[in-house]
Structure formats: C-alpha cells, structure tokens
Specification:
- The strands form two sheets. This protein has a five-stranded mixed beta sheet. A five-stranded mixed beta sheet has the order 6-7-8-10-9.
- The chain contains 14 helices and ten strands.
- The protein is elongated.
- It has helices at about 1-30, 50, 55-60, 80-90, 105-110, 140, 155-170, 175-200, 215-220, 235-270, 275, 295-305, 350-355, 375-390, and strands at about 70, 95-100, 110-115, 120, 125, 285, 310-315, 320-325, 360-365, 370-375.
Length: about 400
C-alpha cells in the first residue's frame, strides 16, 4: 500500500511539473510585441486555458516579478532618458525598474533594453543604435514616413511604441487620424532633434554663426556630474533628467492636442469650403480670427491635393474688422504667392476706398502682404480685384492681327 501511494505521488508530481513547464514555455510565445506603423502585435490569449492549468497560472501570479528596463550606466544622454520615460508611460512598464549597467548578464535579464547591448531586435525588445551595422531611420523602417535621420534609442522606442504611448496619454484610439497626425508631429518637432544630436548629425552644412546651448539634449547633459565633482554618482541626475524630459514632452503633447490640432481642423474646413467663398478656389475664409494657419495650410494643400495654390486668407480681427492676408511662397520667406495691388500699398481709409473703388477700406501695408476692410465683403473684394488683375490676358481670337 505504501509503495502504491509513493508511485501515485511521484506520478502526480511529474505530471504537475510538465504542466508548469508547458505553461511557462507557451507564455513566452505570448509575449506582446511593440507596434508602430510597420510592426503590429499579434497576441492571442484565447489559447491560454488550453495549455495552462489553473494551478500553474496561480503559481505564476504569485511569483510575478517586476518588469526591468535596461540601459547603460555612467554618463547619460537625452536619448536613453527619453526612451525610458516613453516606456514608463505604458501600462506594461509603468512600475518597471530601470537597471543602469553594461553587464551583459544583467541586461539579459531585462524585459527591454535601450541604448546599450549592441543589438537592435524588436522581437526581443532590444533597441540599441551604436553597432557598426546600424543605419536605420524612420523612413527605412516605415517607408511611408519621410524622415531619414538616423535613429537613436529615443527614436527607436518612439517608432515601435509611439502609437500605444499616445493612445495611453491622449485617450485617442490608435487607428484615429488625429493620433497619426500627432504621432508624426511629435517625431518631427521633438524626437527627431534628439535622434540627430545623439548621432552627431548637424542641421546644416558649414560653420554656424552662433551656438545654441539650450536644447533639451544640452540641458540633460548638464545634469551629469561635473568632471571635478567629488561624487560621480549619476543616478540622481538621471532621475532629474527623466522628470525634465517627461514634463517637456507632456507639455508639447498638450499643446499639439489642445491648440495645434484644433487650429488644423479650422484650416482644413476652410480649405474644403474655399469654392463657396470664391469660384477660383484661391481664397479661404477662417471662421475664427487669430488661428495660426500657415503651417497647416501648406500641409493640407498637399494632403488634399489642392490644384490651384491658395493666394489669400480672410479673417476677422479683434476690432470686428476684416483682414485680407497674402499666402507666402513658403513658411520661411517674406515673398508672397500674390501680393495686394502695388498702387494700393501704403494708402489708407477713404483715400484707399476712392482709389480702389471698394467701400470700407482701412489700409494696405506698404509691403503689400496684408490689408484691412470694415466688412467681410470688402476684404473679399480686395482679394478678388487682385486676382483679376493678375489673371493672364485672354488669347487673341484666331485670325486677328
């Protein structure tokens, strides 16, 4: 009887061990992968109960360990600080311990490793960019994106986790168009700068006229211990740096979501309704004055495939009067696509109304880039007259001399 009980006990122990090992092995296959515009997670937890006994699941929950984010120790830089901040905003890593080391054995135990280890492998969550063979950019990994700056650990983490990150921080859904617009904007106007500086890529060729020493990367660098400080401990500075870059990123995200995106919506609606303002489609009217429009207008003309470039925008000012402003040839130029008529420039009030034949004129700037009228109809007429004057003369009829 004793031997029978012993055999039964051994059989149960072996069977239970197989169940646990099988469960652990299968759970490794279910490890969620990061997603970006080119990498999408495929996680099917429905198979779990078939391969994992309830007892095995209970034991795994009891022994659950804290996630670990690995990065290098010593002098820290903006890219890995920002990468760690990004990861900490995700539910999976919000309580993760940050292990700062170059020890390969310790890094091997980390769930995700950034900026160290000499390996880029998203499937294993390894995001280093220092290896000789690494040349990846946003465009090389996501061909539909235009940026060709070599990625740092910040850019790599943002590329793979950015949609999930922004969905978590904004409550937008990952497939919403607004989130994709924010995703692009925050890379272009926040993360790409960090990538370029960390990889030693200059903004331009030639010698600069002056130094810029207040970039985010520079301010992170200043939080490292000074070379002659008695203490060379970098942990306190690293934590301060992560707090600083986090606050700055969140502030920028708040601006783009609460101010920049609403302005884009106003401009987009105006562009779509432009033919109702004037049949030419070259005049847009903004329902709200004070809306920043230039950057959005240029982007939306491309996105909406506007064939005839928009020449003028109309909007009301703080005094309830109306402005007609010329669209510049580009974001960083004072040249206009079409300036207001030369003979109007520098003329004001009644003199301008008599000269133009348009009631309610207030002024036209001497530079010809903006004018004013007391009414919306008057401002619109100023734009129309300028378009008419610039229109090419009709070709002569056949047979005429």
């Amino acid at each position: 009887m004793w031997r029978l009980c012993a055999k039964a006990s051994t059989l149960i122990k072996n069977t239970f061990s197989v169940e646990i090992n099988t469960a652990r092995s299968f759970s490794g296959l279910l490890r969620p992968e990061a997603s970006c515009c080119c990498f999408h997670a495929v996680t099917d937890t429905r198979l779990g109960p078939r391969y994992m006994s309830s007892e095995a699941k209970r034991l795994r929950s009891d022994n659950m360990t804290v996630k670990k984010i690995g990065t290098h120790n010593g002098t820290f830089h903006c890219d890995e600080v920002l990468a760690c901040f990004f990861l900490r905003q995700l539910p999976e890593y919000k309580d993760a311990e940050i292990i700062r080391t170059r020890d390969a054995a310790q890094l091997a135990e980390c769930d995700v490793v950034v900026d160290v280890g000499g390996e880029f492998d998203p499937k294993k969550h390894r995001y280093d960019h220092h290896q000789r063979t690494f040349t990846e950019s946003f465009h090389s990994l996501c061909p539909q994106k235009p940026w060709v700056t070599k990625l740092s650990s910040a850019g790599l983490v943002y590329l793979h986790f950015g949609h999930q990150l922004l969905a978590q921080l904004t409550q937008l859904k990952e497939n919403e168009r607004q989130l994709e617009v924010l995703y692009d904007k925050l890379y272009e106007n926040f993360v790409e700068e960090v990538d370029a500086i960390d990889n030693g890529i200059s903004q331009y060729d030639g010698e600069s006229r002056y130094a810029i020493s207040s970039t985010l990367s520079a301010r992170v660098s200043h939080l490292n211990p000074r070379w002659n400080s008695k203490s060379q401990d970098t942990e306190e500075g690293f934590q301060k740096a992560m707090k600083m870059v986090g606050e700055e990123f969140m502030d920028r995200l708040d601006f783009y979501q609460s101010s920049w995106l609403p302005a884009r919506a106003v401009v987009e609606e105006a562009v779509k309704q432009r033919h109702q303002v004037d049949p030419s489609g070259e005049i847009v009217l903004f329902s709200l004055g004070g809306c920043p429009w230039k950057e959005h207008l240029f982007a939306l003309e491309k996105e909406l495939q506007v064939e005839s470039p928009i020449k003028f925008v109309l909007y009301s000012d703080q005094n309830g009067q109306w402005r007609v402003q010329c669209v510049p040839a580009g974001l960083n130029t004072f040249q206009n696509r079409l300036s207001l008529l030369e003979e109007w420039r520098g003329v004001r009030d009644e003199a301008l109304s008599e000269l133009s034949g348009i009631k309610g004129c207030v002024f036209v700037h001497a530079g010809g880039f903006i004018g004013g009228n007391k009414t919306q109809e008057g401002a619109l007429e100023m734009a129309r007259r300028t378009l008419q004057a610039a229109a090419p003369a009709p070709a002569p009829a056949n047979g005429s001399s």
